[in-house]
């Protein structure tokens, strides 16, 4: 009985203990890591990744997977820049265009999967490559900035609207030496909204039911296809929100700025399986997973670890977290049967 109790405690709180241990280690080993300035920087660095990871979580809930989120975010970034710098649209129209683009990409992904029976990994991988190519065509692969020369020889005279830049650069007064960034506020609001939707609404519970046993969900009258399409549309919209925030922070359409978004957001979503022993996709775990990735990268950077080791460390932690979660969970199940 004591062994079973220890096992349950390890499954439920082991990852949080690991997170606390890493924070303590970096606080002692890296000067300035424990400062409010460093904490704000970590939060700002994980905000966009966390929003994308919450989109991935919505597809994982229905037993799917979205590989196109990084390219959707980058497409949203480039569309923002193209709309304001080249087409000279307002901030409101630009945001509306980006959100619509994300929803349409999610809709197409969902229809390919539920109507055309294309496996989710293949459908979203194909969409990823399509978007990567599509976003480069209007400027022939160049980044977008005010004053750039366009392919037709003209000069782009539009600028990023001040109210658009406010989304990515505004900081709120807090009880710390640095101000609280707007993207972090958006991330927290999105995390709470997704958490409430998935955990406390009928629609969220039905999505979990589809992920657990699709056939059983169909037998009780659940419109499985509709909820799967909804999950991918949520993912697309959240990815476009991440791209909007990135564009607003950078103030230009940097074609290479979203290179690591896919890997980091997937890592955060999967690490979330280990938080509180959930062993399933969940918004709270994903938010903690994003925070974990941010803390890990910030600590390694402040300790002057070579940049090329960071992906290895992220991968090692991800594998360890998943093995820890599912191996111990399987042992708990076996112990329960005996």
From TrEMBL:
Coiled-coil portions: none
Keywords (A to Z) from UniProt: Cell inner membrane, Cell membrane, Membrane, Transmembrane, Transmembrane helix, Transport
GO CC terms: plasma membrane
Pfam families: BPD_transp_2
Topology relative to the membrane: Multi-pass membrane protein
GO MF annotation terms: transmembrane transporter activity
Transmembrane segments: 6-28, 40-61, 81-114, 121-138, 179-198, 229-248, 260-277, 283-300, 312-329
Keyword Amino-acid biosynthesis: no
Official protein name in the record: ABC transporter permease
């Amino acid at each position: 009985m004591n062994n079973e109790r220890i096992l349950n405690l390890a499954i439920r709180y082991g990852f949080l203990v690991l997170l606390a241990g890493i924070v303590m280690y970096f606080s002692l080993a890296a000067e300035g890591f424990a400062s409010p300035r460093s904490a704000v920087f970590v939060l700002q660095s994980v905000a966009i990744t966390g929003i994308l990871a919450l989109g991935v979580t919505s597809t994982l809930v229905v037993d799917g997977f979205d590989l196109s989120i990084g390219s959707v975010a980058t497409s949203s970034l480039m569309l923002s820049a193209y709309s304001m710098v080249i087409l000279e649209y307002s901030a409101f129209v630009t945001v509306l265009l980006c959100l619509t683009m994300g929803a349409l990409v999610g809709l197409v992904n969902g229809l390919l999967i539920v109507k055309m029976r294309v496996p989710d990994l293949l459908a979203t991988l194909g969409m990823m490559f399509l978007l990567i190519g599509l976003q480069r065509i209007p400027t022939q692969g160049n980044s977008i900035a005010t004053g750039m020369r366009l392919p037709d020889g003209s000069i782009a005279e539009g600028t990023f609207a001040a109210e658009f830049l406010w989304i990515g650069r505004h900081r709120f007064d807090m009880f710390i030496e640095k101000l609280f960034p707007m993207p972090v506020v958006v991330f927290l609001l999105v995390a709470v909204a997704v958490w409430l939707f998935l955990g406390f609404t009928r629609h969220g519970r039905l999505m979990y039911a589809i992920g657990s046993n699709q056939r059983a969900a169909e037998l009780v009258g659940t419109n499985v296809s509709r909820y799967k399409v909804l999950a991918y549309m949520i993912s697309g919209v959240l990815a476009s929100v991440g791209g909007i925030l990135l564009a607003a922070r950078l103030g230009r359409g940097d074609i290479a700025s979203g290179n690591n978004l896919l890997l980091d957001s997937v890592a955060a979503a999967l690490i979330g399986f280990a938080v509180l022993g959930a062993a399933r996709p969940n918004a709270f775990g994903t938010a903690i997973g994003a925070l974990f990735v941010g803390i890990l990268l910030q600590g390694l950077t402040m300790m002057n670890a070579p940049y090329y080791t960071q992906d290895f460390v992220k991968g090692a932690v991800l594998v360890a977290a998943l093995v820890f979660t599912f191996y111990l969970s399987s042992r708990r199940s076996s112990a329960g049967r005996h």
